[in-house]
Structure formats: C-alpha cells, structure tokens
Amino acid sequence: MAGKPPAGDPVQDAPDVTPPQTSAAGLPAVGHTLRAAQRQMGVKRTALTLLRVNQKDGFDCPGCAWPEPGKRHTAEFCENGAKAVAEEATLRRVTPDFFAAHSLTDLATRSGYWLGQQGRITQPMYLPEGADHYEPVPWERAFDIVAEELRALDSPDEAVFYTSGRTSNEAAFLYQLFAREFGTNNLPDCSNMCHESSGSALTETLGVGKGSVLLEDLYRADLIIVAGQNPGTNHPRMLSALEKAKEEGARIITVNPLPEAGMERFKNPQTPRGLAGRGTALTDLFLQIRLGGDQALFRTLNRLVLEASDNASGAGPAAIDAEFIAEHTHGFEEYAAEARAQDWDETLRATGLDRDVIERALAMILESKRIIVCWAMGLTQHKHAVPTIKEIVNFLLLRGNIGRPGAGVCPVRGHSNVQGDRTMGIFERPAPAFLDALEKEFGFAPPREHGLDVVRSIRAMRDGHAKVFVAMGGNFVSATPDTEVTEAAMRRARLTVHVSTKLNRSHVVTGARALIFPTLGRTERDLQGGGEQFVTVEDSMGMVHASRGRLEPAGPTLLSEPAIVCRLARRVLGEDSRTPWEEFGHDYATIRDRISRVVPGFEDFEAKVSRPGGFTLPHAPRDSRRFPTATGKANFTAAPVEYPRVPEGRLLLQTIRSHDQYNTTIYGLDDRYRGIRNGRRVVLVNPEDAADLGLADGGYADLVSEWVDGSERRAPGFRIVHYPTARGCAAAYYPETNVLVPLDSTADGSNTPVSKSVVVRVEAGGASGPETGITAAG
Ligand SMILES: Nc1nc2c(c(=O)[nH]1)N[C@H]1C(S)=C(S)[C@@H](COP(=O)(O)OP(=O)(O)OC[C@H]3O[C@@H](n4cnc5c(=O)[nH]c(N)nc54)[C@H](O)[C@@H]3O)O[C@H]1N2
Ligand SMILES: Nc1nc2c(c(=O)[nH]1)N[C@H]1C(S)=C(S)[C@@H](COP(=O)(O)OP(=O)(O)OC[C@H]3O[C@@H](n4cnc5c(=O)[nH]c(N)nc54)[C@H](O)[C@@H]3O)O[C@H]1N2
Ligand SMILES: [Mo]
After folding, report:
1. Whose CA is nearest to atom 24 of ligand 1?
2. Is the pTM of this model over 0.85?
3. Which of 277, 659, 723, 750 could lock 200 by a disulfide, CB 3.0 to 4.6 Å apart?
4. Residue 164 CA: which ligand is closest?
5. Residue 672 belongs to what domain range?
6. Which residue lies with its CA nearest to atom 15 of ligand 1?
7. Best substitution site from 490, 565, 663, 745 to test ligand 2's pocket, by max atoms within 8 Å of Cβ?
8. Chain segment 496-553, per-residue pLDDT in tens
9. In terms of domains, do 475 and 509 share one?
C-alpha cells in the first residue's frame, strides 16, 4: 500500500536488540530496498524510478556523493540510495488541508520521523506573526514578504542564507550571487558541520580542499586505509569499489572504534555470488581505535616509517620517497624531528591499540607502493580534526603518495552535491579571486568581509544580530548542535524561510513570521519557458555531470530551486540589479554560461557536460604535482599531538547515523547491521565499561554531557546496549543527541561542531523510553 503515512504519533521508541551483523548488503538488502520504495511509491513507480538512478540519461542519486563508475549496472543504486529516492518520489502529500488540521503547537510535539513521513509539500505556506497555523500564500505575495523583511534590515549582514548539500550547481551559483548582490557573505552551509575540517587541512597542506583520487585510483592502489567512515550505511556503492580494488590486489586497513558490518564482509547485490554466497571479506586489518586517537596513530606510523628509512639496507623499496620530498614538499626536516619524538606510551593511551597491531599496519604500509586514505565524519568532527587530517597528509607525503596513480587523499563527501555547492561559491569566506571574477562578470561590488558560518549564525540569531534566516534545503534546527540554544535562536528571528521538499522540524520552530517554499526534487521533470531543463552536480571525486528528473512534479504549484532564487532575487533587488534573473530562470544553459566564465575548470561547460558521464575538474596536485599553497609546495605540518581526555567515570560519546536515516530524515526505526530494531534511543557501550559503571544491558539511562564551563546538558531515556565498541567510547544516534553538543564545542581551524567526542555521564535508572512516552524525536 503506497501513499499512507504510518498511523499515530508519538512513535513509541522501544528498541529490540540482537547481536550486530558481520556482513552488509546481499539478498536481504534487495528486499529492504523494494519494500521501502513500494511503501512510498507503489510498485510501478518504484520500478520506473529506480531504473533511472545514476544512469547517464537519468538523475543523480540524491543520496550520497560517491561517484558513478564509467560502466554502469542497470541498477546503479543501493538500498539507501533507493530509500532517499523513495522519500522524494513518495505519493504522500502535505497540502494546505494538512496545515489547517495541524496547528504549529501540535506539529511542534511531533517527531522528526513523523513530520518527514507526511509527504511532499505542495503549496507555498505562510505563518503570519502570532498565528498558530500556516496558511497558503501565492508565490508573489510570499516573495514580497521576504523582500519586506530583508529591506527593513539595518545591514545586509543581518540576513543569513544557509544551504544544504542537495542543491544543484545552477541553483547554488544563483543563490550565492543573490546573497552577494544583496550585500552579504553570510552563506553558511552543511559543509560547516561536515567536511570543513578536510577542506581547511587540505587547502593549507596541498593547496586544494578536495580529494585527489578518482575511482580508477582505488582499483590501482596497493593499500586503502578507511578511517572514520561507515560506508556500508552511508556510501554503500563504495563497497563495490572496494570489492573491485581487492580483486585487483589491494589490501584494506579499517580504523574505527566500531566494527562496522559493511567493512567486514560485503555481499554485492549486483552479482550472483554476492547475492547468494559468502561475499567478500573487505578488511584485512582492523584497528579498533579510541575516539579521537587517529592523529596519534598516524604520527606514530610516520615515526616508524622514518625509522624504517634510517635502518634501510638499500635492498628493498625505500621507506620514504626522498626525491618527491626534496622536489615537491616544504617543512620536512622540522616535521621529521617532531615525528621522531612521538612517544609510544602516549600513542597507546590515545589510541587504545596495542603495539603489535600498529606494527602490523606498518608492515602493510611498507609493502605498499600506492596508498589511499579515505575518511568521513569520524575524523572531521573532533576538536583536533584539522591537525588529524594534516597528519594523514604528512603520512601520504612521506612516501610520495600524492599526485600519482593509485594514491592520494579521499575525503568521502556526504550530500550528493555538497562539493559542487562550494565550487559554485557557497562559502562564507570566499577567495578574493572568486569575488573578482563575480565582480567582472556581473558588474557589482561583492562584499569582501567574511560572513557567518553555521555556529556563528546561531550565535548571531541568539544575540539578535541576525534577523532573517533563509535556507536552501536542509533542516537547520535538527542538524545543528545544542538544540535548545539553536531553537531559541531561531525563534528570535523576524522571519525564517525554507525552500524544502519535505516537512521537518525547522518548519515548526520558526521566527516571528515563517515561509515554506515547496520545491522540485532531483527526480522530477523541470519544465521552464525555455523547455525541459537539466541541472549539474559534482561528486566526491570532482566529476561534474548532468542530472535530469523524469517524474511528474509533486504538485503543479512547485517551483524549481533556480526559479525560486530568480524570482526572489528580482523581487528583493528590484530593477537595480542588472543580472538577467528572468533569462536565468527561463533557460539554465544561460546560468552555465556565466559559471563557465566565473569558476575555474568550467570553461566550455555546456559542451563538456553534455557528453555522457560529464567531465572531471582539474586538480593541480593530482594532475601535475603542483601545489597552489602559500609556499608553492606541499606542506608538512607538525602540530602537537592531541586526543580527548576523559575524566574518571565518564565516557566519550560519538553521535552517528543509523542504517535507516538520511541525516535528520528518518526512514525507519531500525539499524539492521548493528542489530537494533524498532527504536533509536539507544546508547552503545563496551561491556567492560558497562560493568565498571554499573550499566546493565537493557536498562535505561539518561545521557548527561559535561562541558568545560561547568554546564550540563541532558538527553533522557536511552536504552543501554552492550556493544563491541572501543573501551571508553560510547555511541548514540544523531539528531536525538544534538541536544548534548555544546554550541561552543567546535574544531580548531574549521569551527565544525565536535559531534564525535562528547564527554558524558551515563546516569543509569534514568527515565525509560516507552513508559515515559519519550518519542522518537529528531
Ligand atoms: N544512508 C545514508 N547515507 C548518507 C548519510 C545518511 O545519513 N544516511 N549522510 C550523508 C552525509 S551528509 C555524510 S557527511 C556521510 C557520513 O558518513 P559517515 O562519516 O560514515 O557517517 P557517521 O554515521 O557519522 O559515521 C562515522 C563513522 O566514523 C567512526 N568514527 C567516529 N569517530 C571516530 C574516530 O575518532 N576515529 C575513527 N577512526 N573512526 C571514528 C564511527 O564509528 C562511524 O563508523 O554520509 C552521507 N551518506
Ligand atoms: N550530532 C551530529 N550532528 C550532525 C552530524 C553528526 O554526525 N552528528 N552530521 C552533520 C552533517 S555531516 C551534515 S551534512 C548536516 C546535515 O544537515 P542538513 O543538510 O541541514 O540536513 P538534512 O537532514 O540533510 O536535510 C533534510 C531536509 O532537506 C530537505 N530537502 C531534501 N531534498 C531537497 C531538495 O532537493 N531541495 C531542497 N530545497 N530541500 C530538500 C527536506 O526538507 C529534508 O527535510 O548535519 C550535521 N549534524
Ligand atoms: Mo555531511
């Protein structure tokens, strides 16, 4: 039965727990895919839609940013990609009648899961000041309201323009142009909470804030290190690439506090052997590290590589690439002195690993000519995330593993176009050269002062310095830290505006006035005056390609994201703006034409992107070992080694994704691979820690975070689950645990919220989920 949301809310969170699985995908994943899709779309639409995902003439999967291989399967999607598509292509609808039936007060008590399950928003909706119901509003009136509030500001910097990472290149380019013509660089985005640390570290050391490997490189690598990432859930198609890499002879080291099923064994659903057989064991060596121990680990590996180089007899392959270091890098001597001083005791304390397993990793490293390191949120969301990633760069530079086939850095991006949005100028600290190019092309003077990132935007709203909040997608109040502080900040705004496909908590925690602009998703046909349009996206490896929706739009009133920006910009900026907004909205090729003249690497954009499969953006370190850094070389950096210190009786909590969610969008209450069903309020604790702390399996506890300023934050009613995580570490799902992350707890050098190391006290005997009616919030 498609089209019907699950009955009743509050959703009762009553987790059932079985042991975690040790393999991912296979036949069960195919069943889950089809069932999830059919619930939302029905049988026929499911078949038609899923066959279009990631095909050269189809649409880009709105799931993750993993690239598509050149030769594609008919089913080039994964279980979680299919769920992302089904969420968008659902037949359920949120109409004006829905808002008439549900007051804001009512909606504010609903879980994020319930809100998301109601379906696609079909009409622009307006919440007048003091009202408790959204009401339908014509588009033109809605744009007038935004214009009124924006024009009433004392300074353009009192407005904030947020972007999530699904927005197409075309929409993103127009959106930043609008914000800058309006007069502000306040362009925070989800990257600020995601791979900002990677961008900061890579820009300083290599000169380009993006990954340096292509899919083919994975197939040529001798060794792939996957650190701080759970691809089985979050980038399932990466498992096929890792399987292929193994077939080509690569070995894999996994570094993670949790044994994640996908990295253990993968049953490729695209092959008969994968469907029915035992599948492929992916990980050759598992380093079960403590949260935040990675910088110490890589520093020690680097020390050992240097020592191996000192002891080399000259027979075997050299441990370091002296020629590369001399010719292409800067700061080696200083760094090497620092690395040689790294202390074993500190390393073992920081990582929780034994010396033996680190030495086994070293042996594999020394045997490997070509090495790639992949990572995601497990490295970026720590206080010392930037120095940690820089240490990985040191590691790769030592053996010349940048700028040659089969080697390099591979930060695996999250949202399907988060990387492209940055390329298009969604950034609160734009490069002067980018602004110069905008100025030349559009004939206005863009603001030069840096704008607000996510955390600073929240502070600015909290303190009354920012008064209008506009979001191009996303779910700002649920994705950001310190939920209570953030919600209070949003409520202080004069106006909050969301361009959205689905309902979420950010629509019900609003400023004095609020607007919802319903928009087309990736899967839908985009018809404008100039005919049927396509958009473009950039994946995690810098490949740019076209995406064409085929489905009928969720409603006749919906506007595309580019159309919304064009009409809003004209209304706000008036006839003073010399930008041809009408033309841009009419025909997106005219936007691409401008992009080709402003953004490096996009010359001849329209022709290049019209080729099936698209094109690869240039990347100086990868293509020619040129490093556009301050020194003109790749920089070794020698930051002091840091790791989180946890007081007696406390645990370090990481906040992660379950298998049934896409960030704040909850698909269901199961986390199949980890053996959790029917509930999300669980805390995974190592059995030995649990014994020390008196935390019985199946009992309930409150999680209380303790911050350096003495403040405490509480998340009640979590079921304790004994789980094989690293000692001293715990894990629970985001967004429910965002209430625990202090706004001021951010990474040095990237200001990313520290979502992966929160010091908590687990207070057993806390409120129990079902009895107290705690809902599956988020
Ligand atoms: N289905 C699905 N796909 C998604 C998403 C989704 O929510 N659902 N989200 C998308 C987005 S925006 C992103 S950014 C990515 C996120 O992709 P991931 O980064 O894989 O997501 P997380 O669930 O945050 O998992 C973090 C992983 O890092 C490990 N880890 C945590 N701390 C440490 C540490 O200190 N050291 C090491 N070595 N490991 C650590 C955790 O145990 C976990 O395995 O996925 C994208 N794809
Ligand atoms: N504690 C903790 N917090 C975290 C993280 C963590 O690991 N732990 N991870 C962080 C990370 S990596 C990220 S990326 C952020 C995610 O932050 P966001 O990107 O802000 O959040 P999402 O949940 O991805 O946004 C979902 C909403 O996007 C809208 N949407 C979906 N598709 C479209 C579309 O095509 N167009 C438009 N306009 N809207 C659309 C829908 O209304 C949906 O409700 O969260 C961060 N927060
Ligand atoms: Mo992300």
Report:
1. 656
2. yes
3. 750
4. 2
5. 651-773
6. 414
7. 663
8. 999 999 999 999 999 999 999 999 999 999 999 999 999 999 999 999 999 999 999 9
9. yes
